[in-house]
Amino acid sequence: MRALCWEGVGKLAVRDVPEPRIRAEGDIIVKVRASSVCGSDLHLINGYLPAMREGDILGHEFTGEVVETGPGVQRLRVGDRVVVGSVVACGGCWYCRTEQFSLCDNSNAQPVLTEKLWGHAPAGILGYSHAAGGYSGSHAEYIRVPFGDVGAFPVPDGVPDDAVVFASDALPTGWMAADFCGLKGGEVVAVWGAGGVGQMAARSAQILGAERVIVIDRLPQRLATAAARLGVETINYADTDVLEALREMTAGRGPDACIEAVGMEAHDVGPGYAYDRVKQSARLTLDRPTSVRQAIMACRKGGTVSIVGVYAGLVDKFPLGAAMNKALVLRMGQMHAQRYIPMLLDRLAAGEIDPGYLATHPLALEDGVRGYELFEKKRDGCLRSVLHPVR
Amino acid sequence: MTSNATRWALLGATTATALGVGATVARRRRRHQPDRRDGWYVVRRGITVDRPMDALVGFWTDRERLDRALAGWATLEQLDDNRWRCVARDRAGRTGWRAEITVTGPRRLSWRVEAGPVPQQGRVDLVPAPRDRGTEIRVELRYRFGGPVRRALGLVRGAEPDQGLRDALRRIKSLIECGQVIDTRRDPSGRDQRQEAATDRLRERLTTGGRA
Question: What ipTM was predicted for this assembly?
Answer without folding.
Answer: 0.90
